[in-house]
Design brief:
The protein is an all-alpha fold. It has one domain. It is built from 5 helices and no strands. The protein has helices spanning 3-13, 28-36, 40-53, 55-68, 78-84. α2 packs across α3 and α3 crosses α4.
């Protein structure tokens, strides 16, 4: 399976959500990263580069996505509890 096939499968099989738990500001980059199948820091780097080179369109797209996208359902986090137990807290700072 090629890299493009994995990308196409991820996009078709997942819905785009905001991921407020893994996100830093509104969760748009974290949700986009999971939807595309990349690491969260890569999506954030793309957003930062977009802010540097295309400030206006990037800000408009980010705020529209933050308003329009729904939050990620809590049921998706059950796989972490099954894998690591009920005391698993990956989001502790």
């Amino acid at each position: 399976m090629s890299r493009f096939d994995r990308f196409a499968h991820n996009v078709r099989s997942h819905k785009l959500y905001k991921d407020s738990i893994n996100g830093m500001v509104c969760g748009v980059c974290a949700g986009f990263a999971e939807w595309v199948g990349i690491k969260t820091w890569v999506a954030r780097m793309i957003a930062v580069l977009g802010l540097i080179f295309l400030t206006g369109p990037t800000l408009i797209a980010y705020f529209i996505a933050a308003m329009v996208l729904s939050r990620r359902p809590v049921a998706r986090y059950d796989r972490y509890q099954r894998a690591f137990g009920p005391d698993y807290e990956p989001y502790r700072r």
